[in-house]
Amino acid sequence: MKLNGYLRSAVVAGCVCGLIVSSGCRPKPKATTGTGGDTGSGTDVPGNVMPQRPDAEGEPIKGLNLRNIQFAYDSFQITDSEVPKIREIADYMQVNANTRLVAEGNCDERGTAEYNISLGENRAQAVRAYLIGLKVDGSRIQTKSYGKDKPLDEGHNEAAWSKNRRVEPVLYKN
Fold this sequence. Notes:
The protein is of the alpha+beta class. It has one domain: CATH 3.30.1330.60. It is 37% helix and 14% strand. It has four helices and four strands. A four-stranded mixed sheet has the order 1-4-2-3.
């Protein structure tokens, strides 16, 4: 009987210690610059092995007219209407092996800063995962989240917010 009580106490103590370690000692994900816009839900896209902050080296390639990938409110799901934009990026990167992409995730002004940094990152990761599915080497794709810090439209209505929910593709030469 006494042994059973000790065993129970040890199990409870182990569980408590495990909870403390797993909740208090795990580093928080690093947020890139910015604070958030709209709120979203979902899980991270697997396969992010690249650092969140792109290299400062190199100049963006000018004159490509890459189109932003737009997202619905509260979402990082890629819609069918945005797929041709991602295919254009993949086609360019497959022909130009000396390029790398930084997918910059953005949100509208609604929501908490922390959440929207995460949402912007999830949007950028969704584009990255799609490009990898189109056979673009993942080592050439980095992600960055600006949250609400880089709005295209400063307005405070749905027309403005819908423009700000995006991933901006920026290509660099290696």
